User: What shape does this take?
Amino acid sequence: MDTDNRRSFDLSSGAKPLVDPFGRAITYLRVSVTDRCDFRCVYCMSEQMSFLPKQDLLTLEELDRLCSAFIARGTRKLRLTGGEPLVRRDIMTLFRSLSHHLDTGALDELTLTTNGSQLAKYAKELAGFGVKRINVSLDTLDPVKFKALTRWGDLAKVLEGIDAAQDAGLHVKINAVALKGDNEDEIPTLMEWAHGRGMDLSLIEVMPLGDVGSERVDQYLPLSLVRARLAEKFTLEDIPFRTGGPARYVSVKETGGRLGFITPLTHNFCEGCNRVRITCTGTLYMCLGQEDAADLRTPLRASESDDLLQTAIEHAIARKPKGHDFVIDRRTQQPAVSRHMSMTGG
Ligand code: SAM
Ligand code: SF4
Assistant: This one.
């Protein structure tokens, strides 16, 4: 491989950082390393999901090259997601190679979003590769509800994984999708449990991504309502804490913990957007809520040098839209975006 050519795309050699037409620097890349998963969460996938043929996926080496191309142009934070990132075969080799960018200082943070099912196996290795903070998705602590929501998941395994992650020194944040009827009564319990273990909790509104065989309006629970209900029991104070993502945080006086609200529907969070997403086939999405995308697999495979790839990335970033158009209401029953969250990653 032509590493010299790669080096010419390095900020230290005068390459330009990626900045979109609205002046937002692209410093955060989320990469879906697989569309497959060992769960079938009701809001994310239908039970009979069809997955991509394996030959369409980028290899781990290609994913490494793609991520490195973004890091060379100013990406400081990299999140691996999916599908379930930890079910991709040999995924630790990708963490190992990406961790070199932490060693050189080119990257500030390497992290992942996981359902936790494989954490007991991988937590130590992840910590060894410089991963410091992880997001674990967990919507309920009730084993029966957990099974119903994830269809295939086992709560005990996830809790074991969270224990292993904390034992390995990883800082865990819990992400929970707020679901009307399913976990809405349990949110205070989930929060007290997370805060009791020193973990932040972020609540997410259901987004209209992909057809999952049930109507979104039945799942959608506005976080403004959740917050108002929590405020009846707890003292919530707005704080300026940010993790580089769209969550807005409050501190909870009674628990001493932090609670985040990710509200793509009730609150437009696009103005400070610093991120783009890549799928496991090398498709770059400039916005989670829009269909426009750029194929990076073709320029990646067309040449061993990164020239074509970098040009394709620049052209794509020049088209990053100002914001998304998510809508969930009784008149709009089609998903705003036809792809599932497991394609682009959460
Ligand atoms: N499998 C991993 C996990 O569950 O953490 C990573 C991928 S998953 C797609 C990332 C996040 O997206 C999870 O927290 C999940 O709850 C969330 N998610 C999936 N579908 C969603 C939807 N339609 N609306 C809002 N959040 C969703
Ligand atoms: Fe899998 Fe995560 Fe989607 Fe659940 S939310 S089905 S764990 S990808």
Q: What stands out?
A: Residues 37, 43-44, 81-82, 84, 113-115, 137, 175, 177, 204, 206-207, 209, 341-342, 345-346 surround S-adenosylmethionine (ligand 1) (CB under 6 Å). The chain has one domain: 18-344.
